[in-house]
Amino acid sequence: MSATDRAVGLVNIAAEAAADKLAQEIVAYDVSDQLVITDAFVLCSAPNDRQVRSIVEEVEERLRDQGGVKPVRREGERDGRWVLLDYADIVVHIQHEEERGHYGLERLWKDCPQITLPEGTRGPARGSADEA
């Protein structure tokens, strides 16, 4: 079983929204074979709490306007270090770069297939000269 077309569409919307707010290292995994609760994870990071919040706002707005969905659950917004947006079909993790390095979600899902994202949505690598 693989992620539904709907989930992949939502992943693409979320990735494009995150990229527009200069999120770093945007990746998406098809976790449908591993989890029954969701089809895909989107991971991205930012160098500071303010940018994390900016990415969260943009992802929520785009998924609402273009995808017609609102999060069924939101966690971590108060601290601004790791915000989880659960849309049932997909879960978006927006992390401060320190949390991303510490928790290493990519290591947990490395055996899951990556979802190919639209051109230009991967974002700069952490610590690159392209950071804003």
Q: What distinguishing features does this structure have?
A:
132 residues; alpha+beta; Beta Polymerase, domain 2; 5-stranded mixed sheet; 5 strands
Give your account of this protein's structure:
The chain is of the alpha+beta class. It has a single domain, classed as Beta Polymerase, domain 2 (2-Layer Sandwich). It is built from four helices and five strands. The chain has helices at residues 5-20, 49-67, 97-103, 105-108; strands at 24-30, 40-46, 73-75, 82-86, 90-96. A hairpin with a 6-residue loop joins strand 3 and strand 4 (82-86). Helix 1 (5-20) packs across helix 2. The chain is globular.
Task: Report the major sheet.
Answer: 5 strands, mixed
CATH topology: Beta Polymerase, domain 2
Please tell me the overall pLDDT. Answer: 92
Please state the oligomeric state of the protein chains shown.
single chain
Looking at this structure, what is the CATH superfamily? Beta Polymerase, domain 2
Q: Would you count the extended β strands for me?
A: 5
Percent of residues in helices comes to 25-40%
Widest sheet, order of strands: 1-2-5-4-3
Number of helices: 4
